[in-house]
Structures are given as structure tokens and as C-alpha cells.
Design a protein that fits this description.
about 450 residues, mainly beta, seven-stranded parallel β-sheet, 36-stranded parallel β-sheet, about 0% helix
Length: about 450
């Protein structure tokens, strides 16, 4: 029937039923797939029901997949609005495994798109261990299973959400868009990607369930993310600042125990490398095994914002935690506050706990302790800037020195506005504490 949104390769589309499942394996050859209305490779789409599911395995070949409205590779799309919150038409779910040395050029890979304002993009389970991939991986909680993305090898590159040739489903997350799921990166490279927010990765945690120690939305154990940028711009008719040159996390937790995030920038927002709203940030090795694969954040920039390396904030009464027990944050710049790190609780009384260095247990090698140096801010806190009545910093070990402030106090390494700083040990120079009508303790400038 004319106008049924079938996939070019995979499941059949339907005008009155759920799209059929697409099962596709590509081991080599040259593949070109195009669907004006449906998914190019994967599940069939539906005009009136759910998008079809997909299972895709790619180990080789040159694949070009184009879709006018949906995923290039993955679940089928749902086009019809259910008409009420009780009837939700989601995009099809997807299982996608990419290994070996395929070359893939497409828009979005993963869960199917949806035209239902009450529906969601399809959930997906994606494993990447090889390949040269130009794509945006898209996953949401459109099914009972929460989405997951695992990357141990391969390269994702040159994925721009405004690409007119390869249509991207979302405007956030140049390489990865994820809702209520997990992303584990132990190897591989993400580079040269851009989006309105989260130049490389955008994660939205919409669940209100409390996350425990050891649970993370983004976990980086190895690999690298570099040369990505957040542009800012409109999504629909709503303007957004370009937060998170590499990673933008709205709720949840980020844990770095290895890997490198470098040379990313936010054009007109906060967090040259990492932006976190209502969430926690950890740089530490939970196994306490010395690996010398220290997590590194270097050479990033917030061109018109705060937190050249990392920016953390909160609202709605939520507290945040920043643990920097291991790793290197160096040579990042911010046009305003916090060249290396900015933790800004604003004028609220939300609590922020910032810990730098181990408390005498666990890591003992001196070069495994955190190092925050060579960063620059224009206004205050070249290395670390913290603001908030209940925002407190404890420094147990490590090094915070040789950072700079270009416009005001030179070589200002740690600045806390309204909160407090406790210095137990470590190489730390020039600490400024501005108290809310209180007198600064000995050893600090007030």
C-alpha cells in the first residue's frame, strides 16, 4: 500500500498494526539503504501503532543508511499520536552490535523515533567494539528494559546534529543521546561531534529513584572524547545554552576511573568538558588497584561560561557530591569562574560536598593523588571555584597549584564563596574564602 513506512532493509511497515521486527546481519560488502518515511535498516514503522523492534549485527562492510524522519539503523518509528496519556505509541526497541572494521555513515542508530507527544524513542541495548562510525546513538526508556550503551573500541566521529544529509533524531548529544540508562566507556574514541548541548554525550536522568554508590549513568574507564563542542541554539522554539562541550548530564552520576576528555568546548554555556545539573561527579578508582590509567580532563574551555573542565550545579533542593580522589585536571579555561572546576549552588542553601584527595586509606602513590594545575579563569578560582552557603570543600591530599586568574587575583587556586574550606594535607597554595558575614579562619584570606 502506498505510504506505508517500511524499512529499506528489515521489517515491514504497517498502516494499522505494529511494525514488524527487523533482523539484519551485515558482514561485508557495500550497502546503501534509504527510506523516506521509515527506518533505513531495521524495524518496520507504523502509521497507527508502535514501531517495530530490531536486532542488528554489523561486523564489516561499507554501510550508508539514510532516513528522512527516523533512525538510519534501528527500531521502527511510530507516527500516530495516541490522543491521550493512556495510549502511548513508542518507537521500536533495538539491539545493535557493531564489531570488526565496518565503515558506517548514517544519522541516528538505536531506538525508533516517535511522533506521539506522549510516547518515547525506543529503548536500545548497544555494544560497540570496533568500526569507523558516523552516527548519533539514540536510546530512551520506551520499553520496560532500561537502555544501555557500551563502548570498548571503535571510533564515533563527525556526527553533527544539524547535518542535513544524515538526519539526526535529537538535537542534544552529538554522538550519544540517552534517557534513564547507562553508558560505560572502556575504550574507543569519540571525536569531532557537536550538538546544542552535550557535544559528544547527552544523558537525561528522569527517574526520581535515588542512585547508590557504584551506580552511574556515565562510567568512563578508558578511551577518549575529544574535539567536540556544544553550540547552544533552539530546540523547537525553546532556546538552550550550549552546556557540556563533551558531556551534558541532567540528573544522575558520572564516574571517571580512567580515560581522557580533552580539547572540547562549550560555545555559550557552562562546562567546557563536563556539565552536570542535579547530579554527582566522581574521579576515583573504586577497586583501589594502581593502574596508572589516571582519568584526565585537559585542554577544554567554557568560552563564555563557568567550569572550563567540570561544572556542577543543583536546584530544587538537591544536594551534590564531588569526589576528586584521583586523576588530572589541567590546562582548562573558563571565561568566568572555575578554570578547572566550578561547583555553583547559586543563592540556594542546597548542600555541596567537595572532597579533594584520599583520606589516608586506599591510594598511597603520590602521583595517583589528584592534580589540579595549569587551569585559568577570568573572574575567580583558577583551579577550583565553589559557591553556596552550604557548599564546603575538604582537601586531604593532592596538588592544587599553578592555576591562574587573568582579571583579578593572580594565581588563585581555590576560591569558596559563602561556604568553607578545610585543608588537612596536600600541596595547595592561595586559598580564598569569602564568608557570609563570618570571619575567615587563620591561613585563609576572607
Amino acid at each position: 500500500m502506498r505510504g506505508i513506512p517500511s524499512s529499506a532493509i528489515g521489517g515491514a511497515g504497517s498502516s494499522s498494526s505494529t511494525g514488524t521486527k527487523g533482523e539484519v546481519t551485515i558482514n561485508g560488502g557495500n550497502v546503501y539503504a534509504f527510506s523516506a518515511l521509515g527506518t533505513a535498516i531495521g524495524g518496520g514503522s507504523s502509521r497507527t501503532k508502535q514501531g517495530g523492534d530490531a536486532e542488528i549485527h554489523i561486523t564489516g562492510g561499507m554501510i550508508i543508511a539514510k532516513s528522512g524522519t527516523g533512525a538510519g539503523i534501528g527500531g521502527g518509528s511510530a507516527y500516530t499520536t495516541g490522543g491521550s496519556t493512556d495510549t502511548k505509541y513508542n518507537g521500536g526497541t533495538a539491539i545493535v552490535n557493531i564489531s570488526g572494521n565496518p565503515i558506517i555513515r548514517t544519522g541516528s542508530i538505536g531506538g525508533g523515533n516517535t511522533g506521539d507527544t506522549n510516547g518515547k524513542i525506543g529503548s536500545a541495548t548497544i555494544n560497540i567494539s570496533g568500526g569507523d562510525i558516523q552516527a548519533q546513538f539514540v536510546m530512551a526508556a520506551g520499553a520496560t528494559a532500561k537502555p544501555s550503551f557500551t563502548m570498548s573500541g571503535g571510533t564515533i566521529r563527525n556526527s553533527y546534529v544539524n547535518d542535513e544529509e544524515y538526519i539526526h533524531i535529537k538535537k542534544q548529544g552529538g554522538a550519544v543521546y540517552l534517557e534513564d540508562g547507562t553508558f560505560t566507556m572502556s575504550g574507543g574514541t569519540i571525536k569531532n561531534c557537536s550538538a546544542v548541548q552535550g557535544g559528544a554525550v547527552y544523558i537525561a536522568r528522569k527517574s526520581t529513584e535515588q542512585m547508590a554508590e557504584g551506580q552511574f549513568n556515565f562510567k568512563m574507564e578508558g578511551g577518549e572524547i575529544h574535539s567536540c563542542f556544544a553550540t547552544g541554539g533552539e530546540i523547537g522554539n525553546t532556546p538552550y545554552l550550549g552546556h557540556g562541550g563533551a558531556i551534558c548530564l541532567n540528573g544522575g552520576q558520572i564516574h571517571m576511573s580512567g580515560g581522557k576528555i580533552w580539547n572540547n568546548y562549550s560555545e555559550n554555556g557552562d562546562g567546557g568538558a563536563v556539565y552536570i545539573s542535579n547530579g554527582n561527579f566522581f574521579m576515583k578508582n573504586l577497586s583501589r588497584i594502581i593502574t596508572h590509567n589516571y582519568p584526565t580532563i585537559t585542554g577544554n574551555a567554557a568560552h563564555k561560561g563557568n567550569g572550563g573542565g567540570v561544572f556542577v550545579s543543583s536546584e530544587n533542593g538537591k544536594s551534590v557530591m564531588v569526589d576528586l580522589l584521583q586523576g588530572i585536571i589541567t590546562n582548562n579555561t573558563a571565561n568566568n569562574y572555575g578554570g578547572g572546576i566550578c561547583v555553583d549552588m547559586g543563592n540556594t542553601e542546597n548542600a555541596a560536598t567537595v572532597t579533594v584527595g584520599a583520606d589516608g586509606q586506599g591510594v598511597t602513590e603520590s602521583d595517583a593523588n589528584p592534580k589540579i594545575s595549569g587551569n585559568m579563569a577570568m573572574m575567580s578560582g583558577g583551579g577550583l571555584y565553589v559557591r553556596g552557603t552550604n557548599a564546603n570543600v575538604t582537601i586531604n591530599s593532592g596538588m592544587i597549584d599553578e592555576n591562574e586568574v587573568s582579571a583579578y587575583v593572580k594565581n588563585e587556586n581555590v576560591a569558596n564563596e559563602k561556604g568553607g574550606v578545610t585543608l588537612n594535607n596536600g600541596l595547595v597554595t592561595h586559598v580564598v574564602v569569602t564568608f557570609n558575614g563570618n570571619k575567615a579562619p587563620n591561613g585563609f584570606e576572607g
